[in-house]
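Inputs:
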Amino acid sequence: MLRLTPEEEAMASGARGKAAEKAMDLLIRYAKALGAERFVETNNVAGVPGSAHQWLKDQYKDDGGDYRTVFCKFDLDADEVFDIPVMTGNACHLQGGMDPELWREQGYSPEAFENAQGDEKATAALNIRNLKTCTPYLAGNEPAFGEHCAWMESSAVVYCNSVLGGRTNTEGRESTSAAMITHRIPDWGFHRDEFRLGDHLVEVDVPVNNIFEWGMLGYYIGEIVQEEIPVIDGAISNAGLIELKHFGAAAASSGGVEMYHLVGVTPEAPNSEKAFGGKSIKSRIRYGAEERRKTYENLNIRGQSTDVDYVMLGCPHAAIEQIEEAARLLDGKQLNDGTALWIFTSRYVRTEAQARGYVDIIKKAGGLVMTDTCSAIAQSVPKGTNVVALDSAKQTHYLPAFMGIEAWFGTTQDCINAALTGKWRGELT
Amino acid sequence: MTASQLSEPIVIRGRGIVPGVAEAEALVTRETISGWGGVNPIKGEIIETRHELVGQSFAGKVLLFRGAKGSSGWSAIFHFSRLAGVAPAAMLFVDMTAKAALGAVVTHAPTVTDFDVDPFSVIATGDRVRVDGDKGIVEVWKK
């Protein structure tokens, strides 16, 4: 039975305005569907409020078809249109549709750019931070341990829960937009201690020490545990920010992993006993040479031609160290004629990469550093792309399915080599 | 003539989480479904490369699936499918997640979960199914 506080009752009754009333109505329907008994307060909400392609706006053209209409009728699932109040908490906008400068290269029309710019201004006017990234934790929004959040973006959610010890479910567009207005989200799932304990023990028998290996391990685990919580122990090392970013993103795309524990590494798993918290272990999963080989084959299932037209890096959005690595590998060299290289990151990290000279080095070699989006989100690849090379298991999972193209998965070095030679020569060693 | 006039249905019970009543043919997968990146919301079609339903449409069907996986765009994709007129007629799922709950709510399709028996042991693709999201009752006519 869902119980409301007096303030929540006030919002639901309309005493705090129409937007709060409709946002609470949606959150109450959602909380009841979950079986939640109460809400938690949250002051850290990350979503994609109000942003819409023209197609979505056109669905609501009889009601005005603008930013406000989309926010009311789509985001809040409301049956009328009203003003959205200026947000009072830490609300941010995650990745969007296009690079604010390189949108032509991404294949967008001036009309689509105008539309996106209008949405961005409307978002900013509501005091929502336009972080425009899938890695808010690399762009100034790093939740404190135990902080209740309401985040979208599965790779950010799994990072928030697992690495930072923040608390969020994989929220959706509608629930985050409603939470920005109400500062409420259902007290269910990862907001609760008992939900955060491990389900499966994964014993790693092969060395996992870079983003390529961490990506494969995540992809393998996600497919087996689906949305349950793996506890990983064994031959894992170099579990730094970048590796965990790739690991979590992979596990959240082949499955629905929203939290994991790395024994001795992540904050809620000082040891295996704490990670399981007395719960019985549902299954023991081994990751050895055979599982690693099979995962590599699955990720390369859509690779046929070794002639690579396009190399995409930065899924999830590249950290400064990854752009530095790309710049180092490309310094003084030239991309193959007919092979494009796009590296995606946040505006925040790009500014730093620009200041350090990496953006210019990559540009001189023939590559582009882009922000706000990625090829899967934008559904945009360089014209004529038939074969893409990727160092992200997550992007490999999504991009070929979206675009109907072939894809290779390998190391960052394999990908840069393909950009320089036009040939895929990656293999599992 | 609807199926309900032909014979006695098998009845299973659960918890209705989105109200309304719908009757249609079932589309069943024991796999989880990825929304964003796994579904084309304009066609209502599964597009995930290695999914057992790849290439099939859930438009107007009673969609029985294990649960939601993948991107947080799950709810928005099913929400889009409603606007495009290709949403499932009703949804039945067994694994509760934030994605699946929110997705069902904004799709406005009658939805039932938390069943008294394993629905996969009763419902197969092509069966006629009537979902009552108000009462949490699912009636099944085997094909």
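The mean pLDDT of chain A is 97. Flag for discussion at group meeting.
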